[in-house]
Amino acid sequence: MDKFFWSDPPSQVAFPVAKAGYPLIFASAFTTGVFALLELTVPALIGLAVTFSICYFFRDPDRVIPKNYGAVVSPADGKVIIAGQKDSSPFFEGRCQKISVFMSVLNVHVNRIPHEGEVERVSYYPGKFFSANLDKASRDNEHNAIFLKTGDGRKICVVQIAGLIARRIICKLQKGDRVARGERLGMICFGSRLDIYLPDDADLNVAVGDKVKAGTSILGYLRHEKKEKN
Questions:
Q1: Active site members
Q2: Closest CA to 197 of 45, 84, 31
Q3: pTM of the predicted model, to two decimals?
């Protein structure tokens, strides 16, 4: 029995790049080309390095998604900085489990759906830009909250949070969308964080300090569903 699946069709290129990066890549490449034509060697070399750096930041690798029943996969690449119960939250009614994943500028910044279901609503808040690893970033920073409902009514919330240098949150989802586990949902540009809120009875599969990858790393399981053995 297959244990993995593709939530999005695999890319047909060797080095997939997120569409959001195209304007920056083209602008940088064009400027580099102008420097080269003018025989400005140093600026051309700097421009070439910048172009490759932008391509690297906006890389969008394909991911195979685990089929494990009830699995909640990470919506982001990065490091777990919070994992545990919360008594209350503006993003979840009652007690819940909160997991925060911090993305450095070196991580893949494309975000993915943690669990299949339906988008109940998407709520954007134009806040401040504190460092994303601070506790107050969850509340005060610019953020975009995606509220999901699973097939049997369980609630999950994913919050894209802008960081100190992040200035753009991208989300393609709208209310009523049906989404698959591991499907691309958007991205945050240049260092940021994602918070995931799960029901209080969810079984966590990660701890603070763990490194995770979007779509492939299992953060936890919704307890009402039977877990399969790996």
A1: 192
A2: 84
A3: 0.88
